[in-house]
Amino acid sequence: MDTLLRETVNAVVNSRFPEMSIEGRRQIENILIREEYPKGAIALNEGEVAHEIVFVGKGMLRQYYYKNGKDVTEHFSYEGCIVMCIESFLKQVPTKLIVETLEPVVLYMFPRDMLFKLAKENWEINMFYQKILEYSLIVSQIKADSWRFESARERYNLLLETHPEIIKRAPLAHIASYLLMTPETLSRVRSGVL
C-alpha cells in the first residue's frame, strides 16, 4: 500500500468531511491514479478538459491564466490540498487555466466518471463531493471579497495567516500576482513600508 496515498486521502478527507468512515476512505484510495511531475511541468494546459479532481500528495502547484500578456496566479495548492478547474470539470469544457508545478509533485487523480459512480452508490462519497464543491465556492468568495475590500497589507496578512506554506515556498512574483500586486508593492508590504 502506498503510504503517501493513504496520508493524502486522510488529509484531504479530514479537511472536508472528517466523519467519513474507513470504508469510504478506502473506496476513494482504490480508484485514485498516481502521477508524478517534475518542477516546471504543466499538469493541465489551457484548452484541455479537466477530467479529474486532483489531490496533492507532495509538492506545490499553481493555477494561472493569461490576461493582457501577463500570467495571473489564481490559486496555489500543496500537500493535502485539492486542485480543480471547476468550470471545466463540471461542464466538461476546455479550461482557461493552466496548472503548473512549482516543485516536483506527486498527485492523485480522482477520475470524474468514477467519482460520480461512487457518489451514486455511497452517500459518504456523495457528501464528500458536495463538501469539495462547497469549499471551492467559499474559497472563491473569500478571495473575491479580499480583492474587493482589503488593502494590500490585509491581503498579504490573510495569506500569511491562512497559508504560510505559500509564503515560504512560492516564488514572490507568483505571490504578488495572486495578491493583485506588483512585486515591488509586495516587497514594501513585506518590509512594513505599506
TrEMBL record:
<dbReference type="InterPro" id="IPR018490">
    <property type="entry name" value="cNMP-bd_dom_sf"/>
</dbReference>
<dbReference type="InterPro" id="IPR000595">
    <property type="entry name" value="cNMP-bd_dom"/>
</dbReference>
<dbReference type="InterPro" id="IPR014710">
    <property type="entry name" value="RmlC-like_jellyroll"/>
</dbReference>
<protein>
    <recommendedName>
        <fullName>Cyclic nucleotide-binding domain-containing protein</fullName>
    </recommendedName>
</protein>
<dbReference type="Pfam" id="PF00027">
    <property type="entry name" value="cNMP_binding"/>
</dbReference>
<feature type="domain" description="Cyclic nucleotide-binding">
    <location>
        <begin position="35"/>
        <end position="122"/>
    </location>
</feature>
